[in-house]
Amino acid sequence: MTVPVPSNPDNTRLEDLQQVLQQGGMRRAARMLNALQPAEIAHLLESLPPKERELVWNLVEAEYDGEVLTYLHDDVREHLIRLMDTGELIAAMGSLDTDDLADMLQDLPVAITQEVVKSLDQQRRDRLEKALSFDEDSAGGLMNTDTVTVRPEMTLDVVMRYLRRLKDGLPDITDNLIVVDRKGHYLGVLYLTDLLTHDPEDTVAEAMTLDVQAIPASWSAREVATRFEQHDLVTAPVVDEDGSLLGRITVDDVMDVIREEADHQFLGQAGLSETEDMFAPVLLSARRRALWLGVNLLTAFLAAWVIGRFEATIQQVVALAVLMPVVASMGGIAGTQTLTLAIRGLALGQLSINNARWLLWKEMAVAGINSVIWAIVVALVAKLWFHDTDIALVIGAAISINLLAAAFSGALLPLALERFGIDPALAGGVILTTVTDVIGFLSFLGLATIFLL
Amino acid sequence: MTVPVPSNPDNTRLEDLQQVLQQGGMRRAARMLNALQPAEIAHLLESLPPKERELVWNLVEAEYDGEVLTYLHDDVREHLIRLMDTGELIAAMGSLDTDDLADMLQDLPVAITQEVVKSLDQQRRDRLEKALSFDEDSAGGLMNTDTVTVRPEMTLDVVMRYLRRLKDGLPDITDNLIVVDRKGHYLGVLYLTDLLTHDPEDTVAEAMTLDVQAIPASWSAREVATRFEQHDLVTAPVVDEDGSLLGRITVDDVMDVIREEADHQFLGQAGLSETEDMFAPVLLSARRRALWLGVNLLTAFLAAWVIGRFEATIQQVVALAVLMPVVASMGGIAGTQTLTLAIRGLALGQLSINNARWLLWKEMAVAGINSVIWAIVVALVAKLWFHDTDIALVIGAAISINLLAAAFSGALLPLALERFGIDPALAGGVILTTVTDVIGFLSFLGLATIFLL
Q1: Domain A10-137 belongs to what topology?
Q2: Which of B15, B192, B319 comes nearest A354 by C-beta?
Q3: Mutate to test the interface with A, among B191, B340, B441 (most CBs of A within 10 A)
Q4: Would you give the distance in Å from CA A127 to the centre of its chain?
Q5: What would the pLDDT profile of B291-341 be if each residue is shown by its tens digit?
Q6: Residues of chain B contacting residue A344, judged by C-beta atoms under 8 Å apart
Q7: Which terminus of chain B has a smaller tally of CB atoms within 10 A, N or C?
Q8: Closest Cβ–Cβ partner in B14, B276, B301 for A352
Q9: Domain boundaries, chain B
Q10: How far is residue B15's CA from residue A307's CA, in Å, rounded to a whole number?
């Protein structure tokens, strides 16, 4: 028996693979690749641009194809699926669990979906139908049906004999057996650690834990993730409205939920989708980016139109043109800070209509202090630069107004958007900077028109 | 035995608690609160503004204090620690695992730290010293020392008898026993599921799994998280350079790492710390925000200074002042998209010096297409608005230049910053928009000066 050598972190793998490929060592590259976990192969594929990705994908052994596909982001997955013929796809799908299959089917061409469904036996087809009946982002959509159940009146000794007779062994990531009554209602869980440390003569009822509450199938993926994080769960049972056991959720899928939510929040602010492939085809990327640039161009022209209303003022006091981006920029930065805090609060379930008033009050107070400080600083700089006290006073006032408006809209916008069913992570930033641009230009040029001309 | 009622998602808890508190039901509120998991209490406390938070904190039973504190973000934790007297703090710290205690000690006043250390027995003090010797963000810093080890030559029957004699039972989140040789070198793991399904006469060596590689204590928390995600791990052994077992990492701590990294990335872009308390004291918040506003004010004045170089030009063609924010804004938006993609790629370990060239090429190609499209659109709008073909041509050219510069800096900036040890999530956005503002104003007003006057 040899001591396993600690492996390298994953970021050197790409380099190794590139070297082997450059030396034309296709067989060695294939061996390296197929020694990895499916998730690691998926990670490598996502680190490669399209041509190299196709080359490496062809080196992956057919038996891993299905599982590797489940770990890829949608865009990359679609790319690789397009390279496979019907036979390969059906074989790949055949190797998947029902719940992974259900997720994947939605990305397949309709003709192939039908072929795949036809190739399943009746039991798998029934399970698939059930899996497809739940929303992908709900507890029902997250769960697996590979539960191992026991009854409260069994002794632990009987349970252990039963487990030894299971022909496939226990499923991966099993930390407990689920205790149900005769009718399949959830009662509690029997942790394997309790099974192993209690007297074998004890009954399941004596060794089981009652305080793991089952998760209703209708809960959102976000609620499930919060529950797992707060209760340090490894697996959790899922039940229907009557408390009947439907399946179980495992922590590996919950980690994916957390990662996807985080990606959505981070990429959404730049108008990118969380499925975005870093090496997406140029034309596809260009089209998606164009859309976002178009939306933002509209808001930029709105701001320009506001400035246009004051052409005559700018003509007379050209310093206004020099200083006006400062007013807009300060408002945008301050507003984004409040907005970001509010979006995170919403995502964590820590901000709601119940405490929004407090957040608003606090953010307005913070903005109040900063509006005084920065009004003075900017006014002083403007005075030194343009030797004009009136301009200094006007820009100071405009900065103050814009910082207060920024805090107000940054704090309330996310809740308002959510109420209207609009995703704050996606739309919040665009709307906020439109508000701060317009209010910034309007207050600065408006005050200038009144007091400087 | 009753069927546990599916509990409400967590976001209604705050409302319930508020209602009870408003009705003055302090005892009922305390009962509600102390029925929750420590992590849930922590979550609730973070959803409350300072005064209410202090009130609720006093309702938490002393025995939960320590664990609740471990789940709080740094800022909130410090706030509550300041409310506790030395006796309370020592009691709270006494209830913690060594690894949690090590994390917490750094937030305590020095005098109290000494008191706490004095109150520990020698074994705990040694463990604490060991835990403190690892970087908080390394595998060593993440691990617990509560490992249960077995030897390869034991039979499973002997292992099971050994487990039944453990006086404290098995630690929470145990999916395997760690197999070590006589000298404590890591050999592999024995999954509880294999222990339960194999013949009791088999030896550990026959039932154990060899392909769970141990994690070196020096790995970063980010590398550990990637390993857990890609191998669907629940726990993983941690070893030193010689392969000697040091401890184990559990998936609940890894979920916290993923959450914190995501928070850092998301909040960092707005210049906020991931420890930021949504209801931080106004003065503290105002001071932190002021810093970020100050940094951004400098960049805004840099942009203003560039505009100031062209005062004479703007004086003659005031339409330039109206249109110039459009050029800067389009560059900022496009650059942020590329930057966001690159920062995520870096964070996932999918972008490195090895494939940066590809990303740069692709982003430049995407920007190339969009620079043509939006140059034409913006030029047409400018032409219709100001009836001036020269202005239209100048703004079109400036948009093109700025979109290309934005893609170039968005793709390369994160890698360059990382190489210099600067956090791209924090500094990337500020630097990028400075670049796009300056290049936008410079190209637009510069070209205008050359061709319009």
Answers
A1: MgtE N-terminal fold (1.25.60)
A2: B15
A3: B340
A4: 27
A5: 999 999 999 999 999 999 999 999 999 999 999 999 999 999 999 999 999
A6: 263, 266-267, 278
A7: C
A8: B14
A9: 10-137, 149-268, 282-452
A10: 45
The CATH number for A282-452, chosen from 1.10.300.10, 3.20.20.100, 1.10.357.20, 3.90.640.10, is: 1.10.357.20
**Cβ separation B10–A349 shorter than 8 A:** yes
Mean pLDDT within A43-48: 92
Buried b (16+ CB within 10 A) or exposed e, B365-374: bbbebbbebb
Interface confidence (ipTM) of the complex: 0.91
Residues of chain B positioned with their CB less than 8 A from the CB of A307: 321-322, 325
Task: Name the pLDDT band for A177 (thresholds 50, 70, 90).
Answer: very high
| B277: nearest CA partner in chain A | A341
The C-alpha atoms of residue B86 and residue B101 are separated, in whole angstroms, by 15
More confident residue, A202 or A89: A202
Are the Cβ atoms of A192 and B197 closer than 8 angstroms? Answer: no
For residue B8, the 8-state DSSP code is P
Do the Cβ atoms of A440 and A324 come closer than 8 Å?
yes
Q: Quick one: closest CA in A to B3, which residue?
A: A187
State the pLDDT at residue A5: 38
Per residue in A210-269, pLDDT (tens digit) is 989 999 999 999 999 999 999 999 999 999 999 999 999 999 999 999 999 999 999 999
Average per-residue pLDDT in chain A? Answer: 92
The lowest-confidence range among A47-56, A121-130, B13-22 is B13-22
* Closest chain B residue to A42, measured at CA: B230
**Model confidence at A103: pLDDT above 90:** no
- As a whole number, mean pLDDT of residues B15-21 equals 82
Contact call for B3 and A163, based on CB within 8 A? no
Assigned fold of A149-268: CBS-domain (3.10.580)
Does the distance separating the beta carbons of A326 and B255 come in below 8 Å? no
> In chain B, which residues have their Cβ closer than 8 Å to the Cβ of A289?
334, 337, 366, 370
CA B394 and chain centroid, separation: 43
- Inter-chain touch B188–A234, beta carbons under 8 Å: no
* Angle ∠(A276,A278,A284) on CA atoms, nearest 5: 60
d(CA B306, CA B317): 17
Rounded CA separation A39/B451 (Å) = 56
**Which residues of A fall within a CB distance of 8 Å from B45?**
none
Q: How far apart are CA B362 and CA B353, in angstroms?
A: 15
**Contact check, Cβ <8 Å, A49/B196:** no
